[in-house]
Specification:
The chain has 98 residues and is of the alpha+beta class. It has one domain (2-92). It has six helices and two strands. A two-stranded antiparallel sheet has the order 1-2. It starts with a helix and ends with a helix.
Amino acid sequence: MVEKEAQSRPEVVELRKQHQGVGPMVGPAFVLTIGPVERFKHSRQVVSYLGLNPREYSSGGHQRLGHISKQGNEMMRWLLVEAAQSAVQYDPELHRKY
């Protein structure tokens, strides 16, 4: 049933073609969480929307970046981590790096 729904959405099909690790759960979840991608002018906005941007600690002209902010959708971040772990298994270059 989930696979059938994923195949019925062209944006999910395209996302799955372009990114290994994106399966029938992650694809629709990402598309539904993000909504119309046109509302984001830059990829930085998507990163921030999902809470994947680093926290910033600035004082006296010094800038330090910390852990991710985790201000966005917790389930979507979890699904993206799972997709990344799956992609590492299929791509030798990613496997070597991560």
